[in-house]
Amino acid sequence: QVQFVESGGGLVQPGGSLRLSCAASGFIFSQYSVSWYRQAPGKERELVGVILQAAGTSNLLDSVKGRFTISRDNAKNTAFLQMNNLKPEDTAVYYCNKGYGSKSGYEYSYWGQGTQVTVSS
């Protein structure tokens, strides 16, 4: 059973930073890419970025490039999303998932609870 536990969200002011964690289990973590998604209330889920099996290799949504960084620690079965210079538009629930997902993640039947990120003054 594939499982994800996302953590690290919270309330921050614009320009602030957060680091999200994704603890994964139920599969051989090091053999798969990890995708980060987010979904704001009333909006569709969107793919934020992906980190491939090789740590340090990632692809990010254009709107977060230069602000967000994805990393992973295969020994701990954990992926991270470092978010800097946060904007109100980044407010959403953030999720992770296994593999290189589609833009909306419709192919996934499994999701963690996500972690809420709220950017507001």
Strand order of the largest sheet: 2-10-9-4-5-6
Strand content: over 45%
Mean pLDDT: 94
Shape: globular
Quick one: how many beta strands?
A: 10
Q: Distance N terminus to C terminus? A: 40 Å
The major beta sheet can be summarized as: 6 strands, mixed
Radius of gyration, in angstroms, nearest whole number: 13 Å
| Oligomerization | single chain
Poorly predicted regions? none
Tally of individual helices: 0
Structural class by helix and strand composition: mainly beta
Give your account of this protein's structure.
- The protein has no helices and 10 strands.
- It starts with a strand and ends with a strand.
- The protein is an all-beta fold.
- The strands form 2 sheets. Strands 2-10-9-4-5-6 form a 6-stranded mixed β-sheet, with no helix packed on it.
- The mean pLDDT is 94.
- Helices cover 0% and strands 45% of the residues.
- The chain is globular, with a radius of gyration of 13 Å.
- Strand 4 (34-39) and strand 5 form a beta hairpin.
How would you summarize the topology of this molecule?
Elements: E1 3-7, E2 10-12, E3 18-25, E4 34-39, E5 46-51, E6 58-60, E7 68-73, E8 78-83, E9 92-98, E10 115-119
Parallel strand pairs: 2-10
Antiparallel strand pairs: 1-3, 3-8, 4-5, 4-9, 5-6, 7-8, 9-10
Keywords:
121 residues, six-stranded mixed beta sheet, four-stranded antiparallel beta sheet, 0% helix
Summarize the structure in short.
By secondary structure, the protein is mainly beta.
